[in-house]
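A brief tutorial aside. Many learners find it easier to grasp structure tokens once they have seen a single protein encoded end to end. The record that follows does exactly this for Glyoxalase superfamily protein. Read the sequence first, then the structure, and try to relate runs of similar tokens to stretches of the chain.
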Amino acid sequence: MITNLNTVSLYVRDQQQAKQFYVDTLGFELTTDADMGEMGRWIEVAPKGARTGVVLADAAAFDKQDRVGRSADVTLHCSDVHALHAELAGKGVPVTEPETQQWGTFIKVTDPDGHELLISQQ
């Protein structure tokens, strides 16, 4: 029986830049930063307390350059989407204005590699 989602991989051009964005800008925790030999580094980040992590995989090491910015659809939750929007916009992060649909209010954030993250209010 499957009990939880473990990781989602995002293929990135620059692992250090991606790590800084997810940890320093979005406030994720760095859960793993380990040497994988020829495959580079295994960098995994996650929202504080989350069971699911995001692997920031070196696109070149995995021959996945064509998937940079298009490798996954990721949806995150937050408690106050308007406050998060103001915080991220203040940091110069590419972020859409909050939008409300029948299912909730959300913003879209673009990371340095072009991955679009949908963040909705819980």
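Self-check: The helical segments are 15-25, 81-90. If you spotted this yourself, you are ready for the next section.
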